[in-house]
Amino acid sequence: MTCILCAIANGTEEAEIIFEDDDCLAITPLRPMTPAHVLLFPREHAADLPSYLDSSPEGAGRLMRRAAQTARTLGFESRGYRLAWNFGPDTNQKITHPHLHLLGGRSLSDQLG
């Protein structure tokens, strides 16, 4: 099975790209969960989040910084936003390629579940 995020990074799958550089991309997901929902992910595939964090902690840091910059650019930094990484079946994760959710644009639940 082909990784959808790798296909987007390689240009073989279409996506609404918000930002891209040599290391990462930021896209609008097909099914946004909030008015402002962005997925940020590394271009290079990793099997899962723990292996990505082990092999590239600096890459994870760049994604976090890019998320903060994206929130500022989208204009919802002053009201707040949520950053979320998912890993494993209990999170209902569908894509194993590590990706960071940037959620905002409305008041979010006080529960993370």
TrEMBL record:
Single GO term (MF) = catalytic activity
Residue ranges of every copy of the HIT domain listed in the record: 4-113
PROSITE patterns noted in UniProt: HIT_2
Q: Which Pfam families match?
A: HIT
What are the positions of the active site?
A: 99
Origin: domain of life = Bacteria
The sequence motif named Histidine triad motif is recorded at 97-101
Q: Which protein is depicted? A: Purine nucleoside phosphoramidase
What is the protein's species of origin?
Brevibacterium casei S18
The record lists the lineage as:
Bacteria, Bacillati, Actinomycetota, Actinomycetes, Micrococcales
